[in-house]
Amino acid sequence: MPQLIVAFVTGLLFAIGLVVADMTNPQRIINFLDVAGAWDPTLLGVVGGAVITAAIGNLFVRRRGQPMFAESFAVPMKELIDRRLLLGAALFGIGWGMAGYCPAPALTGSAFMNSATWIFLISMLTGMAIFSWRFERPAR
Amino acid sequence: MASAIWMGLLGGVIMGAAATILLLMNGRIAGVSGILGGVIDGEKNDRLWRVLFVAGLLVGGLLMAKLWPERAQLVVTSGVPTLIVAGLLVGFGSRLGSGCTSGHGVCGLARFSMRSLIATMVFMAAGFITVFAMKHLG
Fold it and tell me: Hey, which bits of A1-140 come out as E strands?
């Protein structure tokens, strides 16, 4: 039960962060990626703030032998740089640049009653389902 | 523009805090494509927390749209075919590459994972090239 409450609350908190940072606005993402146009550096601030906070958090959390409400940490240990990682990241990046949406902002932004976000979200879920149906799950 | 960066930094700190709490309490990584993917193809007894995390993302969006209506007003210039192709690529690619902006770009970099660093550089480069091609070449 505590695990489920934590999952909901952290999802909620993550969404608040996304909206505060305006990452739910695809135009801001496209303007960040448009280095040859009117470049918008906001995403750098977001990544900087999130990575530094999570890195400091990580240092303290990983000193514990186990998480508070689970038996062990489910952290990927894989180190292999394979074709799957590179191809997946490239396809993801192309789609991200095309419309300015990635998974978390598409979910949170779908609460904004905007049909473009809904179309993207449905296609994204379809893309994930195609992966699940066509490929086995990646080894962890 | 300067205030946008500060809001970005603040939002980023909130997201980093959420990721830290999820790791501290549940031992899980706040990678949204992985969490969502597990709703679709994960094991049954590992699914409910994922559904609740996704529900939190949605309820957070509803809450923020109430508190800050201007932020929820989006101007999306992409046409329907672009949105559909982009969605398919983001969904499929994030699963194939085992992560997206949150899993690789935030949590992975915060753990100093080489895999996540490479993935982040690849999707950033792909994003830069795609926007350049669409805005300045076509």
Answer: none
pTM of the predicted model, to two decimals?
0.95
Instruction: Give Cα separations from B112 to A56, A77, A118, B93, B131 (angstroms).
Output: 12, 12, 34, 22, 28
What's the length of chain B? 138
Q: Is B78 on the interface with A (CB under 8 A)?
A: yes
- The 10s digit of each residue's pLDDT in B26-67 is 999 999 999 999 999 988 889 999 999 999 999 999 999 999
Contact B5 A138 (CB under 8 A): no
For B85-134, list the strands marked E by DSSP.
none
CA B71, distance to chain mean position in Å, is: 18
A139 lies in some domain: no
A34 occurs within a structural domain: yes
What's the total number of domains in chain A?
1
Q: State the nearest Cα–Cα gap between B80 and chain A, in angstroms.
A: 7
Chain A 86-105, CB below 8 Å of chain B: which residues?
86-104
Query: What's the CA gap between B126 and B12, in Å, rounded?
Result: 23
